[in-house]
């Protein structure tokens, strides 16, 4: 499969995701309105609002992502070595120079965001710069540049805002309603309890759907592909293989990452495993398998 | 009537096919040209850095005339090079000439320690890395273009529209081995 079909598939999936988001939000709001005895007004308002929100997310997702990740821009003079690595690999990939951001955290990790190669950002943590040598860093940057070139960044970034938000709200609502239901037991079982119940049901239905959609954004194939084309760019698969070993071997969690942004990173930044939600949203291919494939090249 | 319609339909389809194919070939050729200008920028940066470097070395080793002459000759050849093949050749010559220049510089500890020399050396190695990457990008595009105009049935159309295969930008063996050097 050529990168051109990869690009058009990603564009198509982005539109699909936006349409699904708009329909889902409007449908849920309308269903709630019916249950509470309302008319069509709520559904129409929700339709307009979610459309506006989808358009907003198309343009603003990457700023949102950079903000919630506490990333700040670095210019050429602040870190010329990093800048030259990115610049040189961009020349090799035929990409315009992206912006470079740094997260002030000692846990090594990296991701790319943006909506197309002209509006793209590569983000690395301070820990990554400290713990990797030049060849390993080149491997990681080449992997991220492949995500940019394939337009993976567009769908992965928009996912953060559209799906991640739904997932986070569902998560929070579920916790709140369990808590609320416990407190309310034996008390008034009027309209308030009914509303809480409805919200909890909606959240219960929405969470798995959101998780499934998340997988649309992060297919394992996409990570393997970025590994492979990154290795093709540096002509040195071992660099990325060693980098993946170091990043996944590091036990420190990355504070700036959360469920909504975890899928962007080159290696899953959330170290706590086992909880239902985390497993539901676990989208990364096994690192061991990625390293094995790189070494077999 | 039906026969005429079928014939017209076939002609239209073939016309659209030729149109799409021609545009595709032109796009591929433009990509090659763009990739070439990417190399060209780096080659120019390299040749404009050379006089500075030569002046710096001259300050410490003025009598090494032959080395300076070789460098100047290779630089002039690179600046005069018109197409990919001759530019690649001249660039390889310059690489070889600069190698002797740096070998000479090894004998002058004061020169090696000078701030200016170290800065130039660093800048030059960055440019060389950029040349290597832009060559990689250019050669990928050349391969894509050359394959497109050589496969059937494209070859029929490419020949009659005068599409010629583009030249690869070849590296010397020594340079290929040098690309992956880590300075850490």
Brief summary of the model shown:
Chain A is an alpha+beta fold and 297 residues long. Chain A has helices at 3-35, 41-68, 80-93, 126-131, 134-149, 152-184, 191-217, 220-234, 237-249, 276-280, 287-295; strands at 71-73, 99-103, 110-116, 119-125.
Structure, explained:
Chain A has 297 residues and is an alpha+beta fold. Chain A has a domain of 162 residues: Zincin-like, CATH 3.30.2010. Helices cover 67% and strands 7% of the residues of chain A. Chain A contains eleven helices and four strands. Chain A has a four-stranded mixed sheet, sandwiched between helices. In chain A, helix 2 packs across helix 6. The longest helix of chain A is centred in the N-terminal third of the chain and has 33 residues. Chain A is elongated, with a radius of gyration of 21 Å. Chain A starts with a helix and ends with a helix. The model of chain A has no long low-confidence stretch (mean pLDDT 83). With 184 residues, chain B is an all-alpha fold. Chain B has one domain: de novo design (two linked rop proteins), CATH 1.20.1440. In chain B, helix 1 packs antiparallel against helix 2, helix 1 runs parallel beside helix 3 and helix 2 runs antiparallel to helix 3. Chain B is rod-shaped. The C terminus of chain B is likely disordered. The interface between A and B is medium-sized, with 14 and 16 residues.
């Amino acid at each position: 499969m050529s990168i051109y079909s990869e690009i058009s598939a990603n564009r198509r999936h982005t539109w699909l995701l936006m349409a699904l988001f708009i329909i889902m939000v409007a449908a849920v709001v309308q269903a709630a309105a019916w249950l509470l005895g309302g008319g069509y007004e709520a559904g129409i308002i929700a339709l307009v609002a979610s459309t506006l929100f989808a358009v907003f997310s198309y343009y603003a997702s990457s700023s949102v992502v950079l903000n919630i990740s506490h990333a700040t821009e670095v210019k050429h003079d602040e870190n010329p070595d990093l800048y030259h690595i990115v610049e040189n690999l961009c020349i090799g990939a035929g990409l315009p120079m992206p912006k470079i951001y740094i997260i002030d955290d000692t846990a090594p990790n990296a991701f790319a965001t943006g909506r197309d190669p002209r509006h793209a950002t590569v983000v690395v943590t301070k820990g990554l710069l400290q713990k990797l040598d030049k060849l390993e860093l080149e491997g990681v940057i080449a992997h991220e540049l492949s995500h940019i070139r394939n337009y993976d960044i567009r769908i992965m970034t928009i996912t953060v805002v559209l799906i991640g938000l739904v997932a986070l709200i569902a998560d929070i609502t579920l916790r709140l309603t369990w808590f609320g239901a416990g407190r309310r037991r034996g008390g008034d079982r009027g309209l308030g309890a009914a509303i809480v119940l409805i919200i909890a049901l909606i959240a219960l239905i929405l969470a798995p759907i959101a998780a499934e959609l998340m997988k649309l954004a992060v297919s394992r194939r996409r990570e393997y592909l970025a590994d492979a084309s990154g290795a093709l760019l540096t002509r040195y698969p071992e660099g990325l293989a060693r980098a993946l070993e170091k990043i996944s071997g590091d036990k420190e969690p990355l504070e700036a990452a959360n469920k909504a942004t975890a899928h962007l990173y080159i290696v899953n930044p959330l170290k706590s495993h086992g909880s239902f939600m985390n497993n539901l949203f676990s989208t990364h291919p096994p690192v061991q398998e990625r390293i094995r494939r790189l070494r077999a090249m | 009537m039906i026969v005429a319609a079928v014939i017209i339909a076939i002609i239209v389809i073939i016309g659209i096919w030729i149109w799409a194919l021609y545009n595709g070939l032109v796009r591929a050729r433009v990509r090659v040209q763009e990739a070439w200008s990417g190399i060209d920028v780096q080659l120019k940066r390299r040749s404009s850095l050379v006089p500075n470097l030569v002046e710096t070395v001259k300050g410490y080793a003025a009598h090494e005339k032959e080395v300076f002459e070789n460098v100047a000759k290779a630089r002039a050849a690179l600046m005069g090079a018109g197409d990919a093949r001759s530019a690649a050749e001249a660039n390889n010559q310059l690489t070889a000439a600069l190698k002797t220049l740096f070998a000479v510089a090894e004998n002058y500890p004061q020169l090696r320690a000078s701030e200016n020399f170290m800065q130039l050396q660093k800048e030059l190695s960055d440019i060389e890395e950029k040349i290597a990457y832009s060559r990689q990008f250019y050669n990928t595009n050349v391969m894509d273009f050359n394959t497109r105009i050589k496969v059937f049935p494209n070859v029929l159309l490419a020949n009659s529209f005068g599409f010629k295969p583009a030249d690869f930008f070849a590296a010397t063996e020594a340079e290929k081995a040098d690309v992956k050097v880590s300075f850490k």
